From TrEMBL:
<dbReference type="GO" id="GO:0016798">
    <property type="term" value="F:hydrolase activity, acting on glycosyl bonds"/>
</dbReference>
<dbReference type="Pfam" id="PF04041">
    <property type="entry name" value="Glyco_hydro_130"/>
</dbReference>
<dbReference type="InterPro" id="IPR023296">
    <property type="entry name" value="Glyco_hydro_beta-prop_sf"/>
</dbReference>
<comment type="similarity">
    <text>Belongs to the glycosyl hydrolase 130 family.</text>
</comment>
<protein>
    <submittedName>
        <fullName>Glycosidase</fullName>
    </submittedName>
</protein>
<keyword id="KW-0808">Transferase</keyword>
<keyword id="KW-0328">Glycosyltransferase</keyword>
<keyword id="KW-0378">Hydrolase</keyword>
<dbReference type="InterPro" id="IPR007184">
    <property type="entry name" value="Mannoside_phosphorylase"/>
</dbReference>
<dbReference type="GO" id="GO:0016757">
    <property type="term" value="F:glycosyltransferase activity"/>
</dbReference>
<keyword id="KW-0326">Glycosidase</keyword>
């Protein structure tokens, strides 16, 4: 498959973002929601900032005080044997399950980057959405945005000591926002809203993270009002020995083709190498899978995709489709944003189709 990575990749890096606080540094500008608005391409960046630390024997962790709405800084000694500091993103209690943590080493929020050509971006000087709620005390991450009937719905992972869930806000002008609360309770991530009703229902993809039985796999749910979701169904699972054997989740907002709804999703192997693949769902019943990638459509190869805060990661964020050209924006190495163009027809032809589904259509 022909992949045209932009020459100016990465298109946004932490160096392009001024810290919200003078005593913080930006370590990530990535995993942005993507939308077109009033002739511009908007990237709703996840900006990750951490406290500046000049003492290499300690580590700092920011946390929002839910009463005062101010950030507090926790400082711990790296010699403190009660904690596990091996993952640069988290601080864990020693000996606990690797899926749990007690602090994050950075705090994320959402800032808007704007472009008239889709390639060169300027980043707004102030945050667009900043943590304010008790369910956001560790930050808000990985926003996605869907336009439905004139309203832009923005949903993101809300992180707090009680877990990671998905919250929803909406806007019509990217200035004023309305908060709707948490729509998928912990532990859940990678929510994507379809851009229109299907047979009178709204649909969403989501990725629960089971703690007893089950694995981090993709599910689908439906709603009458975008706020309350039910009829949850398992959509696709992990594939042992393949590129998506460790975890999977939605990436870009699904978009309509004449073959079905096309979803560009992320998959990680058991050694945490993140690639992107495609999933084709039935136009009239998106709980039915028509086809799926057997090999990635994009994988980490370039230096900026391999090296970074958390390397070997390409993470689909959003697409803008013009005819056969799929302009795909993606996060790289949990650090920056990049963009590549692919052929829609080539993506569709690369998939392995379910013979029973094809024959029934």
């Amino acid at each position: 498959m022909k992949i045209v990575r932009y020459e100016n990749n990465p298109i946004i890096t932490p160096m392009d973002v001024t810290p919200h606080r003078e005593d913080f540094e930006v370590i990530g500008a990535f995993n942005a929601g993507v939308i077109e608005y009033e002739g511009e391409t908007l990237l709703l960046l996840r900006v990750a900032e951490r406290p500046i630390n000049h003492d290499d024997t300690t580590i700092k962790a920011p946390i929002l005080n839910e009463q005062t709405k101010e950030l507090e800084i926790i400082e711990l000694s790296l010699d403190d044997t009660r904690y596990d500091f091996t993952d640069p993103r988290t601080i864990r209690h020693a000996g606990e399950d690797k899926s749990s943590f007690c602090y994050l080493t950075s705090l994320s929020y959402i800032r808007i980057a704007r472009s008239s050509d889709g390639k060169h971006f300027s980043v707004d000087p102030e945050p667009f959405i900043y943590p304010t709620d008790k369910l956001e005390t560790f930050g808000i991450e990985d926003p996605r945005v869907t336009l439905i009937e004139g309203t832009y719905y923005i949903y993101f992972s809300a992180i707090s000591p009680v877990g990671v869930g998905e919250s929803l806000v909406s806007t019509t002008d990217f200035k004023q926002i309305t908060h709707h609360g948490m729509i998928f309770a912990p532990e859940n991530k990678d929510v994507l809203l379809f851009p229109e009703k299907i047979n009178g229902k709204y649909y969403a993809l989501h990725r629960p993270v089971p703690k007893s039985t089950g694995k981090p796999e993709m599910w689908i749910a439906e709603s009458d009002n975008l706020l309350y979701w039910g009829n949850h169904r398992h959509l696709i699972g992990l594939r042992p020995g393949m590129w998506d054997s460790g975890r999977i989740g939605g990436g870009a907002v699904p978009f309509k083709t004449d073959k079905g709804w096309l979803e560009l999703y992320h998959g990680a192997s058991t050694d945490n190498r993140y690639c992107m693949g495609a999933l084709l769902l039935d136009l009239y019943d998106p709980s039915k899978v028509i086809a799926r990638s057997t090999v990635p459509i994009l994988e980490p190869e370039e230096d900026y995709e391999v090296e970074g805060f958390f390397g070997d990661v390409v993470f689909s964020c959003g697409v803008i489709v013009k005819g056969d050209v799929v302009r795909m924006y993606y996060g790289v190495a949990d650090t920056s944003m990049a963009c590549a163009e692919l052929s829609l027809n080539e993506i569709l032809h690369s998939l392995e189709y379910d013979k029973e589904m094809v024959m029934s259509k």
